[in-house]
Amino acid sequence: MASSVCDSCKRRKVKCDLSDPCSNCRISQLHCQYTAVPSKRGRKRRPPRNQDRDTQIEPAGLGDIGISQREAPRTPSVRELQLPSFPRTLRVIPEPPFTVPVSFSSEPEGVFSNLVADVAAIAPNDEIAAIVHRCLDLFVQYLFPTCPIIHESTFRSLAALYFTRGHSTPGSSVSLQPPELTETIHKKEFALITGLCAAVASVMPEFLMPHQHLLTQSFLNASRIMLRMYCDYDLEYPDSSSLLIRLWHSAALQNSTGKAGAAWHALGEATLLAQKLRLYEESSLSRFSPIESQTLRATFWQLFAADKSAAAFEDRPIVLHPLVFYGDLTLQDIGNQNIPLLDVRQDHCQFGFEDRLLAGFRLKCRVWSLGGDLIQQIKLYSRQKTDGLDAKVELARLTETYLRFTGLIDDLPQWLQSFEADPNASETDTFAYQRSSFWVQRSNILTSYHCLELLVLQRCIKYGTLEDMGLSSQLLSVSTRKLEIVRDFVRELHMAPFVCLKVQGEASVERIRHIGSAVLEITETVDDNNVKERANVLFKKLLDFLARLNSKASDELASSQPHPAIR
């Protein structure tokens, strides 16, 4: 077994198993060689002037982000800075994935050429144009139902513009000439289309997109590097692409690595830019074109739902809240100038397909918005009771919100209740296509709803508001109610085709993990054998789904010490 990564894995910045040939090279049908000599990273260590001098802390891995090799100013010692002393033994932090490869050029044309070469090495039998269009096809079918934030024709035009110039052949990057990338608009478009490809590849199963993990890395690196080339301008003059690129970077990072820090940072930038654009005000969209306005509207509600989700799970404080807006939240669900986002010439867009998807998307946003509000109101009501204040008004508001939340899915649209063939549909393929999209949407809405049901119950227990909400505070009754919610949740998991869960990425895993932790708590705190038996059966089913989803976050969770609470 080799002691360092092979040449191909090193160039592509992927993990190598050090075998001969390694698994990555076998999959990609590449010649596997171990000829590169490992180089030391970081700055050269200065010899200490005195033997008892405090150890200086050097930054690690700067070479990975293309820092110039010229001499840097001397770093002051810990003693010179007069900082408090630190332990001599520091925890070694592993190098994060998706650092920018040294081989990537700092010129736009070089980024393009390196991407084409990488994709040709990963998938030698496919043209990069075919892969990009495949990503668009998969987005429309599996991601658009829960995130309708693209204008399909525009993105197909971008794919044709940047990836079908010249006459390329499978595995060849010679005849595919770099497009014009000198203007900021060109860099934006390139970062946008490659960001979409990275997000799509990060959630697709292998049978829908072979080599999806390697493709995610290549497209994500190219998109992130290109964004850095005009990042300052983008922050000053944001538009819909500014939000979408960061949203897709966040998704690709979270789904491919399981590391939430970088993913939340990218999503946080998108959230702040939405505030900068004042997208919470309906009047703010009047200065944009109809397509841009519709994209910004859907993107804001997507970010709004994501923000509510983060606050509900207590991942981070809420950011998009009316109390921190400079104006009122007046943005409507539907605009006055709605134009089709999907390509109406396609067969799968028949029978009001897009209108139904948009109606389901609005229901999804209402679920998270109302559920998040309910959780916040429970906390506020508890504080007022604790402070001895008259909380009757707050209790009435809390009760009203709770009743509205419990009735949210009573009027679930008919097309999300029954998946029988439409008698007016003459194309079997069209029905199958639409059914898969509706399954993604249904499973997303209902698993989110049941997860929020459990979160609401847990917050009532935590803040002592069960009886105020008309619920029993007895341990057995509470445990039974939890299991009823879990049963409904598991039933939705079993009903949906597995691919419709897989394409929801780490968000789906997060919901399953949180439900599983509640079931595990029941098995450890309840003495009733019947309840324990039911909990164990449900817990095994949840574990089976987690194993099949092959979550990167679960891998990260398993390798971390100490283990955080399972969500």
C-alpha Rg (nearest Å) = 26 Å
Helix content: 55-70%
N-end to C-end Cα span: 38 Å
- Pattern of helices and strands: HHHHHHHHHHHHHHHHHHHHH
Identify the quaternary structure here: single chain
In this structure, how is the largest beta sheet organized? none
Overall tally of structural domains: 3
Which outline best applies? globular
Number of E-type strands: 0
Q: Give the percentage of residues in beta strands.
A: under 5%
Organism: Aspergillus lentulus
InterPro entries: Carb_Metab_Trans_Reg (IPR050797), XnlR_reg_dom (IPR007219), Zn2-C6_fun-type_DNA-bd_sf (IPR036864), Zn2Cys6_DnaBD (IPR001138)
Keywords: DNA-binding, Metal-binding, Nucleus, Transcription, Transcription regulation
GO molecular function, one term: DNA-binding transcription factor activity, RNA polymerase II-specific
Task: Give a written overview of the molecule.
By secondary structure, the protein is mainly alpha-helical. The protein folds into three domains: 1-35, CD2-Gal4, CATH 4.10.240.10; 108-324, no CATH class; 347-559, no CATH class. The protein is 57% helix and 0% strand. Helix 10 (240-257) runs parallel beside helix 12 and helix 16 (428-463) packs antiparallel against helix 17 (475-495). The model is unreliable at 47-103, 171-175 and 556-567 (pLDDT under 50).
Write the layout of secondary structure elements.
Layout (H helix, E strand, L loop, with lengths): L6 H6 L10 H6 L49 H4 L26 H15 L5 H16 L8 H12 L20 H20 L8 H18 L1 H6 L3 H18 L2 H17 L13 H23 L40 H34 L5 H15 L7 H4 L10 H36 L11 H21 L2 H5 L2 H21 L3 H21 L2 H8 L8
Helix pairs in contact: 4-8, 5-6, 5-7, 7-8, 7-10, 8-10, 10-11, 10-12, 11-12, 12-13, 13-14, 13-16, 16-17, 16-19, 17-19, 17-20, 19-20
